[in-house]
Specification:
three-stranded antiparallel beta sheet; 50% helix; 178 residues; Methane Monooxygenase Hydroxylase, Chain G, domain 1; mainly alpha
Amino acid sequence: PGADPLHKVTIIPRGRALGLTMQLPTDDRYSYSKEYLVNQITILLGGRSAEEIVFQQQTTGAGNDLEKATEMARKMVCEWGMSDKMGPLTFGKAEEHIFLGREVSRPKDYSEETAILIDSEIKRIVTDCAARARQLLDTNLEKLHILARALLERETLDGEEINRILIARPFQEAPAPA
């Protein structure tokens, strides 16, 4: 609940990714709730959490997911005013450079103290979501292993196949972080 439906999961490497989890939205969205974004970050951190649970180690495999999760948390805090600690404010207006080879940059239009608070809020959101992902997987460890075995056998599972596996053993929810 509170996330886009699962479309496909594969362990076939594509580009720099060692595998892929695809979700497809059921309808067009023009805005996102805080709950939706927290759930998306939790989903992004699921792979890293599974590595830690199953292999008791971290690898570089989750690098892109960590980058996306951190960027989403940064936008929640700096662009969308979704931080109770920072309030309904925006920080650092994006500037687009017209010169080739230049990226969009964010000038710092706030104090060093505010920058520290922003960083701590981004970290809090990501670490809370990582803890939630870990708790969900710990609570549903048997399902994690069943899905992992199915992926090792077939390499790719679509959303319906995953749902059939999970329906046999309903998934237990973990509370959302505040």
